[in-house]
Write a structure and sequence with these properties.
With 502 residues, this protein is mostly helical. It has 20 helices and nine strands. β6 and β7 (164-167) form a beta hairpin.
């Protein structure tokens, strides 16, 4: 039975990621009351004929065109069809669930004014894994992604349920629901706000948090194979550098390498190790510091209302406010920052991989091959890592500066938060692969060590975990399949338990 998360106030990025992974989401009573109150305010605005963007006016550059009450439902419906113009392959299950959870979270703040039936229908789709097909490309922000979700609510669009594709009408029928007839403002609220960016950003910060631990684990294994400096990660000298991330990485490395006979035997043979080994706390630590800052931004966005317009007051004194809360500048900048940090983590990992396979510096058989000349070993998989790092460098260009003008100069600045989150996830995919390569190479290096000295307890445990996924390599099978197996381990498990590094 999946875990259940109750939405009372606002979800965190970790809770969004948990729902994306399969946890059920339910609305607490406070959230339900907020949604109902906001809808009553919209109804009052409609009754009074108060002008409100997207309630009784057109949208974008048509914001000054007044829409009569008899056409407000048609406006909501038409907005979904006109905005559903995304292209490309659909988003995956996890990404779709994350966006839907963030959308429900935004409505639950109680300032959007959609009916409770809208949110309950979204919850039914989410909790039954009946997921709208969301084209992944073609939006500078969020409109096309969100419209694909909204279409299903009115019986249009498509859904994926397991391996089966259903029409929106079939999906609703399967769940015992009828297509909704949208009312005033609901079409705009369904396509508006930053849930696409916050949902994907929540996945990004959660994934980088897990991969940061795996990066420390991979670095420790590589250092044990190659390091020769006396006490390079000692607590006192590292404490002189003021960085919480650096201190955390130093602590992790000391725990991972405690009791290593291999390092004890090699200690003092080198005054300074190369930076890709010696500067692990400084580079990995900087990534952790950046991650902390980004996580704060994402959680702050999830706690914020990002719809436009918003409604407030009471049915007796309704108010509508046209702001720019749907602009995701903070998320765009944060995701660009995370993307660069993840790219740097992959870059230093690739440099360590090169040192493991390079006979000029490793002291190990060339390219970690068991038969020099006849076998190439890990020679070409290092090329793969270098290629992914180069791709990351291209992807790390800031999306938040892409610019562009839409809607006849009405939207004359664009912050590209959703594309920024999407490319951050692409970089994280590459980082995950590079770390899997380093872990496999480090395991191979242990097997080729000229010394019989023993590993540290924790690196020994890591070695056994890697070896449970891939055996010693003798050019006897495709190496990319082996790396994929290790990569699945990174997706599914943590690098260590809290008690191991306490």
């Amino acid at each position: 039975m999946p875990d259940t998360i109750v939405l009372d106030t606002a979800l965190t990025s970790g809770e969004i990621a948990a729902v994306a992974g399969g946890a059920h989401l339910v609305l607490g009573e406070p959230a339900r009351r907020r949604i109902e109150k906001a809808r009553s305010i919209v109804n009052a605005l409609v009754d009074q004929g108060s002008r409100g963007y997207g309630i009784n006016t057109g949208v974008g550059a048509l914001c000054d065109v007044v829409i009569g009450r008899e056409d407000q439902s048609a406006l909501s419906r038409n907005l979904l069809f006109s905005h559903a113009c995304g292209v490309g392959e659909p988003l995956g299950r996890v990404e779709t669930r994350a966006i839907m959870a963030a959308q429900i979270n935004n409505f639950a703040h109680g300032y959007s004014g959609v009916r409770l039936e809208i949110v309950d229908a979204l919850l039914a789709l989410l909790n039954n894994d009946m997921l709208p097909l969301i084209p992944s490309r073609g939006s500078v922000g969020y409109l096309t992604h969100a419209a694909a979700i909204g279409l299903v609510l009115i019986g249009a669009g498509e859904c994926r349920h397991g391996n089966k594709i259903l029409s929106g009408a079939e999906a609703l029928q399967t769940l015992g629901l009828k297509p909704l007839v949208l009312q005033a403002k609901e079409g705009l609220s369904l396509v508006n706000g930053t849930p696409c960016a916050t949902g994907l950003a929540s996945l990004a910060v959660t994934r980088l948090s897990q991969l940061a631990d795996w990066a420390d684990a991979a670095a420790a294994m590589t250092y044990e194979n190659l390091g020769a400096q006396n006490d390079p990660f000692a607590e006192m000298p590292l404490a002189l550098r003021k960085s919480e991330g650096l201190q955390q990485v130093g602590h992790n490395l000391r725990s991972l390498l405690a009791g290593s006979a291999i390092l004890a035997e090699a200690a003092g043979k080198r005054t300074q190790d190369p930076l890709s080994l010696r500067a692990v706390p400084h580079v990995h630590g900087a990534v952790r510091d950046a991650l902390l800052q980004v996580s704060t931004v994402v959680d702050r966005e999830l706690a914020s209302v990002t719809d436009n317009p918003i409604v407030s007051g009471s049915p007796e004194a309704p108010e509508v406010h046209s702001q720019a809360h749907a602009v995701g500048a903070a998320l765009g900048l944060a995701m660009d920052n995370l993307a660069t940090a993840a790219a740097e983590l992959a870059a230093i990992s690739e440099r360590r991989i090169d040192r493991l396979v390079n006979p000029l510096v490793s002291g190990l058989p060339a390219f970690l091959a068991s038969g020099s000349g006849v076998e190439s070993g890990f020679m070409i998989i290092q090329y793969t890592a270098a290629a992914l790092v180069a791709e990351n460098r291209r992807l790390a260009m800031p999306a938040s500066l892409d610019g562009g003008i839409t809607s006849a100069l009405q939207e004359d600045i664009l912050t590209h938060a959703t594309p920024a989150a999407a490319k951050a996830l692409a970089i994280l995919d590459n980082l995950e692969t590079v770390l899997a390569i380093e872990l496999a190479a480090a395991a191979q290096a242990y097997d080729l060590q000229p010394s019989s000295a023993g590993k540290a307890d924790m690196t020994g445990a890591l070695y056994r975990r890697v070896r449970s996924e891939t055996a010693f390599f003798r050019d006897d099978r495709p190496l990319n399949v082996e790396i994929r197996n290790v990569q699945q381990m990174l997706k599914a498990t943590s690098a260590w338990s809290e008690s191991e590094v306490a």
